[in-house]
């Protein structure tokens, strides 16, 4: 028989545990960064993915507090960042003829295949392009140039990757450091987040900037963490009045800028909603279309193996005028 004192302590501890409230649900509103993905089976061995692009890199809460210092909203400088086209949207329609692509070499039934970056479960190359010509070891990542005909890249040779002009550009952080510099601590505030997202037509999606470089290891005391600056673009309205509202809710490192003509939170939300529409996912589910990824930022980005006039027309019909469309073709034409 056990010690009576031990039994009493154990019973008392059990009653205390049962009386405690359930742990709170995680506040997922903060974690709007990264990619949320849903997988769709295209064929028995093929899987494609819908990736929804980042709306805001809102960091997870940590038991640290930003420095409690607030500049004078009446005198702080508010930069203006004018929107400019960050890339030329070129429809790379791919007919038979000179073509190139970058991918990983695989092999199936004795045939070498060049595989696009299609997310899959396990091994395999669900949308592989057969090629002839150059001998390349399986597993190599290469760029091949050749003549596309009948679904085969003939007389392939090694090439160099084409310049990537499809990157999404976000607003820069143009604010000057306040007197004393940016302070260590997390850029995190539910109150500010709620204010911004309750007014989606006014603001560009906020992001976190690391003026001294990001934290490599997620540990450290409040005074040792590198500065994190919350960057907010005011698309419509009075930036200085909005700065006052934000400062009433957040006292950490903050960069508020005037960003006329930039996309808004509402634009990002709309593109995300359309990217998940049945019309688009139905097109993606048909392996004949070769759509291997649909993502969204302020526009819908569709990655395809080969962009044809017919596929482009069907994508336009599925989306309509609900959101801007950007289609990226894995196979691209080679011009003389």
Describe the structure in your own words.
The protein has 336 residues and is an alpha/beta fold. It has a domain at 28-52 and 267-331. The chain has six helices and 14 strands. It has helices spanning 4-19, 190-197, 239-247, 265-275, 278-285, 309-319, and strands at residues 36-43, 46-52, 97-108, 111-115, 129-133, 141-149, 152-158, 203-209, 229-234, 254-258, 291-296, 300-304, 325-329, 332-333. The longest helix has 16 residues, at 4-19. The model is unreliable at 22-68 (pLDDT under 50). Keywords: Membrane, Transmembrane, Transmembrane helix. The chain crosses the membrane at residues 38-58.
The 3D shape can be described as elongated
Q: Let me know the average pLDDT.
A: 78
SSE order, as H and E?
A: HEEEEEEEHEEHEHHEEHEE
Distance between the termini: 91 Å
Q: Tally the helices: what do you get?
A: 6
- Uncertain spans, ≥5 residues at pLDDT below 50? 22-68
Query: How many strand units?
Result: 14
Instruction: Estimate what percentage of residues fall within beta strands.
Output: 25-35%
- Return Rg in Å: 26 Å
Structural class: alpha/beta
**Biggest sheet overview:** 5 strands, mixed
User: Level of helix content?
Assistant: 10-25%
Strand order in the largest sheet: 1-2-11-12-13
């Amino acid at each position: 028989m056990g010690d009576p004192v031990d039994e009493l302590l154990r019973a008392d501890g059990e009653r205390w545990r049962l009386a405690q409230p359930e742990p709170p649900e995680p506040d997922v509103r903060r974690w709007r960064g990264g990619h949320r993905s849903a997988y769709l089976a295209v064929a028995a061995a093929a899987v494609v993915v819908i990736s929804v692009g980042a709306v805001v890199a809102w960091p997870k809460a940590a038991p640290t507090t930003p420095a409690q210092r607030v500049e004078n909203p009446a005198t702080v400088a508010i930069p203006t960042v004018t929107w400019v086209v960050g890339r030329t949207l070129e429809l790379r329609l791919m007919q038979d003829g000179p073509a190139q692509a970058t991918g990983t070499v695989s092999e199936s039934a004795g045939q070498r295949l060049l595989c696009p970056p299609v997310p899959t479960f396990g091994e395999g190359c669900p949308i592989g392009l057969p090629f002839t010509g150059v001998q390349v070891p399986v597993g190599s990542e290469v760029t091949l140039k050749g003549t596309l005909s009948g679904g085969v890249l003939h007389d392939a040779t090694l090439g160099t990757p084409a310049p990537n002009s499809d990157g999404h550009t976000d607003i820069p952080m143009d604010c000057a450091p306040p007197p004393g510099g940016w302070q260590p601590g997390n850029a995190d505030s539910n109150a500010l987040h709620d204010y911004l997202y309750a007014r989606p037509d006014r603001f560009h999606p906020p992001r976190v900037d690391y003026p001294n470089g990001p934290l490599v290891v997620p540990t450290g005391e409040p005074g040792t963490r590198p500065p994190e600056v919350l960057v907010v673009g005011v698309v419509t309205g009075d930036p200085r009045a909005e700065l006052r509202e934000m400062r009433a809710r957040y006292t950490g490192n903050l960069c508020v800028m005037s960003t006329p003509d930039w996309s808004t939170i509402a634009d990002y939300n709309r593109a995300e909603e359309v990217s998940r529409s049945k019309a688009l996912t139905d097109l993606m589910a048909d392996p004949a279309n070769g759509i291997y990824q649909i993502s969204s930022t302020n526009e819908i980005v569709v990655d395809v193996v080969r962009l044809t006039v017919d596929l482009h027309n069907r994508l336009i019909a599925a989306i309509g005028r609900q959101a801007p469309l950007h289609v990226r073709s894995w196979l691209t034409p080679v011009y003389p």
